[in-house]
Amino acid sequence: MTILSSKLARTGIVYGFTVIALLPIGATVLLSLRPRPGTDAIGLGFSNFVHVFRETLVADWLINSLLVSLFTVVAAIIVAAPAGYVISRGRNKLVQGYSLLLFVVQSLPIITAVIPLFMLFARLGLADHLGALVIIYVAGSLSVATWMMAAYFDTIPAALEEAAWIDGCSVFGGFMRIVLRNSLPGVLSTAIFTFLLSWNDYLVAIVFLKTDTGFTLPIGLQSFFQQTSTDWGAVMAVSVVTMLPPVIIFSFLNRYFSVGGIGGSLAGQ
Amino acid sequence: MTSHADQPNVARTLTGQSGGEIPRDDWSAGRGRLFLLLVAPSVLLLVLLNAYPVFYAALQSVRNGTLISPGEFVGLSNFAKVLQSPDFWHSVRFTAIFTVSGVAGSWLIGMALALLLRAGVYGGGTVKVLLLLPWVVPIVVSSMAWNWLVATPDSPMPTLARMLGFETPLFLADPLLAAITVCVFKVWCSFPFMMLIMSAALSGIDRSVYEAASIDGATGWQRLRYITLPLTARTTYISWILMTIFCVNDFPTIYLLTAGGPIDATTSLIVLAYRLVFQNFQTGPGVAIALMMTAAMVVVSLILFRQIRKSGGPA
């Protein structure tokens, strides 16, 4: 324990661990930037990226992933914000029960829902469709998104709304103009959580998607890896394309990044 | 003690201990109708996409259908078949090992990092953000990187082991090594989450408590043992339950690295259910496993809810 009382020693330990922990990610970036075999280029460059955008469907997969995540985020906020408002402001036994139900649903193995939903969607001919993914991601992030919104609404004093009602504002108007408008950080946190959930999902996509032009990035990357497992430069280039959006969002917005909606809020109790 | 009253607090919201100051049961005519309207889409989604699938799964579990044919009613024979199969029990065992090592490993590393960062590290803020990366990077990408590191005899890790004088380890081809690799991979993915939760818990302990203990002559070890651990016990417990849920429900971490192999050494319950349904076309047994997992997870989540309710109250 005495060694740990020196700040320099602690820094050394933490930095050492960080370097080791980030090796896999660093290797991914480095391999993607190495020149392609067969060229006589030296140093680092983007030849792998040029190659994968020319030779594979990575551009399609990127667009699919962006579309799915965008629609998921917007739909999740549209569903979760009003529900969060009711949980925050209209609390009674029934609402409490609903809150608990959301909580239990959150922990269910997703496979339990995926198997029947796949059967149903397949029967309707909608299985191999990005829209199916959006619907399931919205349902899958519903619980956490709703509490995140409700927790944020709880911090907005109700007196603000009451003042607006006295001025002739409707209850719905109060929700939209007072509560929601003052909750942008909460909306942003919820959007980030939903984005990561839909962007990173593998299980739902692997079950539902069959046509390679309709893949999202994770499934595309996986299928590409299975076909060309020795072309590491190309595989890592697709990997970097896959991880860039979440990493960029995270680096700029990590202030709004809360642990799955639960963690940070348990602080200090 | 800093009050968190102005911070959003999911725990308190979830358990009804905080809320807008509007009179609680004010469901008077106009507002009640609006509330119902606002919550309707959420209820509809929950019923259609969560409750109905579970009900449908229950129907499938007592039939011998496949993905495309509904099959016939076979009573509880799917459950009997599953409970009698050695593969199932093997998966239960691996799921337990995967979960316990995932929870213990990620908590120990996460807690150690949280303590070091709390005690003070040069450039701590930046390092903390960097350390969260394994959790932010999509699992498919990390699995590629890990594959590159260990998969073949010529990969970096086996080469390193050879240089150190060991026999070339086959990280993904040897049953025991593959199981260890998958568990280590899970810890690598999960420690940032634990670090965040435990950092938040540690930041809630007032530094004056430590100062008082130091004046009384407490050693560093005693401070950890008698102050830090007891004061963060509830958060620790909640983080363990949460991570248990994450590990039991985790599909991609295992499937992407080993697909459950070699010779089923890393087949967890969820991988087994996936295989039965989508590769062997035995919907009944696969769904039966998913339902048993669901029942177990409902129990775990209710325990978690009670713990959060206790911790969400006035500290």
Automatic annotation (TrEMBL), chain A:
Q: What are the residue boundaries of the ABC transmembrane type-1 domain, all occurrences included?
A: 62-253
Q: Where in the cell is it found?
A: Cell membrane
One matching Pfam family: BPD_transp_1
> Membrane-spanning regions, if any?
12-33, 61-88, 100-124, 130-153, 186-209, 232-253
Q: Which GO terms describe its biological process?
A: transmembrane transport
Q: Where is it mostly found?
A: membrane
Question: How does the protein's chain sit in the membrane according to the entry?
Answer: Multi-pass membrane protein
Name the UniProt key words of this record, in alphabetical order: Cell membrane, Membrane, Transmembrane, Transmembrane helix, Transport
Instruction: Give the InterPro entries listed for this entry.
Output: BP-dep_ABC_trans_perm, MetI-like, MetI-like_sf
Give the GO cellular component terms, alphabetically: plasma membrane
**Which PANTHER family does the entry mention?**
INNER MEMBRANE ABC TRANSPORTER PERMEASE PROTEIN YCJP (PTHR32243:SF18), MALTOSE TRANSPORT SYSTEM PERMEASE-RELATED (PTHR32243)
**Member of which family?**
Belongs to the binding-protein-dependent transport system permease family.
Q: What is this protein called?
A: Carbohydrate ABC transporter permease
Q: Which organism is it from?
A: Pelagovum pacificum
TrEMBL record, chain B:
Claim: Cell membrane is one of the keywords in the record: yes
* Gene3D superfamilies reported in the protein's UniProt record: MetI-like
Q: Spell out the GO cellular component terms annotated for this protein, sorted alphabetically and separated by semicolons.
A: plasma membrane
Which locations, inside or outside the cell, does it occupy? Cell membrane
Which intervals hold domain ABC transmembrane type-1?
92-304
Q: Which Pfam families match?
A: BPD_transp_1
Q: Which biological processes are named by the entry's GO terms?
A: transmembrane transport
Family, similarity comment: Belongs to the binding-protein-dependent transport system permease family.
Q: What name does UniProt use for this protein? A: Sugar ABC transporter permease
Originating species: Pelagovum pacificum
